[in-house]
Design goal:
CATH class: Alpha Beta
EC number: 3.4.19.12
Distance between the termini: 46 Å
Largest sheet: 6 strands, antiparallel
Family: Belongs to the peptidase C12 family.
InterPro entries: Papain-like_cys_pep_sf, Peptidase_C12_UCH, Peptidase_C12_UCH_sf
Shape: globular
Strand order of the largest sheet: 1-6-2-3-4-5
Strand content: 15-25%
Protein name: Ubiquitin carboxyl-terminal hydrolase
CATH superfamily: Peptidase C12, ubiquitin carboxyl-terminal hydrolase
Number of strands: 6
CATH architecture: 3-Layer(aba) Sandwich
Pfam family, one: Peptidase_C12
Amino acid sequence: MDDPRWLPLESNPESFNKWSASLGLDTSPPKGYHFTDIWGLDPELLQFVKQPVKAVLMLFPVTPEYEKMRKEQDEKVLEEGVEGVEDVIYFKQTIANACGTFALLHTLANVDVPIKEGPLTELFARCKDKTPLERAQLLTTAKELESVHEQAAQTGQTAAPALEDDTDLHFVTFVEHNGFLIELDGRRNSPINHGKIEKGLLDDTVEVVKHIMELTQSIQFNLVALSPATEDD
């Protein structure tokens, strides 16, 4: 039996907000949060991102250079483990092309934002005593989640690819957890701890992003922040 496949999400705040709001995220001001573009990595552009930033989602190309680094880090994780991530809700990605949804799940499961009681809160409650693989298996029967994903995948500014198509672009999420910068990527062996946050979630994430950009030698990156919703948005 083939592995399940979902249409890939476009790295588009409109798609992310539709997905999240449909499943209970409060996106209305003054207490709500929503996804918004990060227009560049220069300090003068970063200052336009409303604070406090709760998460940063990154879409980037998977290159041989990146894969080499990832595998080396994953081997180190298997040998040494990772500190500070024991109570992070982490999903192993088992659904092809669903890295966008896994990035959104990793975000909303691990940040303090208002989410209405419903499919997401029920899913996260069931995840607490499960392994990453068992959490992923819960998603294969989450029909409402799959339906919302499909609708959001059709929302992007460009035409959605065919279901059988593979993509060489990948989503990961960066969140703060107990003062540490945590990277969540369903292809990994575990969450990755990038160390204590020194400047702030956004600024510290940008430093990691710059390293990955240098490694991949690509500018095909897109960053989205989960930030407070305000009346002037």
